[in-house]
Structure formats: C-alpha cells, structure tokens
Amino acid sequence: EVQLVESGGGLVQPGGSLRLSCAVSGFSVSSSTVSWIRQAPGKGPEWVSTMYSYNSNTDYSDSAKGRFTSSADNAKNTLALEIDNLTPEDTALYYCTRGRRLFDYWGQGTPVTVSS
C-alpha cells in the first residue's frame, strides 16, 4: 500500500523558516519522481517543486526559487521541503505527491500558517 505522510507544518512568524517532512511507504523515492504541491485557502493547488530520480535534478516554481529547497533521504525513504524567509503568501496546506504533471498518490497535507 502506498502512503505519504507529511509533518512539520505549523504557525510561523514572517521571516522564519520551516522544514516539512514526508514519510513514504509503498514505493522508493530514489527511483521515483516526487513533487511538493501547496494549496492556499480559497485557491487551487499550486505546484512547488519536483525531484527527478532519473537525473537527480530538482525544478522549482518561480515563487519557490531561492527560498525553497527539496531533498530526499533515500535510506529513510523520506522527502523534505525547507522553506526560508516565510511570508504570509506561503500560508497553505502542503502536500507531497508522486509524479510531475500527473500525481497518482498524495499525502494528507500539513498546514503552514505564516502570521505575526
């Protein structure tokens, strides 16, 4: 059974940092294309980043470049998303998923709220 379980979200002040984690079971992150997607309140899903296993490259959305860093721990089969210099516009539910343009498995999401 495939499962993705996100954790690490919470309330953060503007300018702060956060590290989100995603525990994966049922497939190997080292041989899969995995993505982070977020959904802000009242808005549709927004793609954040994708890690490609075949070339070890990572793509980021324009809004994520420079402040977001995706990584994977192949030994633990986990993913991480570090976010620096958080702004209120980063407030959203963050999901880890498998895939790039088509996402077949999603976690339940972890909420990030950026507010003073």
Write the layout of secondary structure elements.
Blueprint: E1 3-7, E2 10-12, E3 18-25, E4 34-39, E5 45-51, E6 58-60, E7 68-73, E8 78-83, E9 92-99, E10 103-106, E11 110-114
Parallel strand pairs: 2-11
Antiparallel strand pairs: 1-3, 3-8, 4-5, 4-9, 5-6, 7-8, 9-10, 9-11
Describe this structure in words.
Strands 2, 4, 5, 6, 9, 10 and 11 form a seven-stranded mixed beta sheet that branches. The chain has a four-stranded antiparallel beta sheet with strand order 1-3-8-7, with no helix packed on it. By secondary structure, the chain is mainly β. The model has no long low-confidence stretch (mean pLDDT 96).
Essential attributes:
globular; 116 residues; mainly beta; single chain; 7-stranded mixed beta sheet; 4-stranded antiparallel beta sheet
Mean pLDDT: 96
Per DSSP, the total helix count is 0
Note poorly predicted spans.
none
- What is the percent of helical residues? under 10%
Topology order in helix (H) and strand (E) letters = EEEEEEEEEEE
How does the helix and strand content classify structurally? mainly beta
Tell me the distance between the termini: 40 Å
Strand content: over 45%
**Global morphology:** globular
Provide the gyration radius in Å.
Answer: 13 Å
Largest sheet: 7 strands, mixed
What's the quick description here?
The chain has strands spanning 3-7, 10-12, 18-25, 34-39, 45-51, 58-60, 68-73, 78-83, 92-99, 103-106, 110-114. It has 116 residues and is an all-beta fold. Strands 2, 4, 5, 6, 9, 10 and 11 form a 7-stranded mixed beta sheet that branches. A 4-stranded antiparallel beta sheet has the order 1-3-8-7, with no helix packed on it.
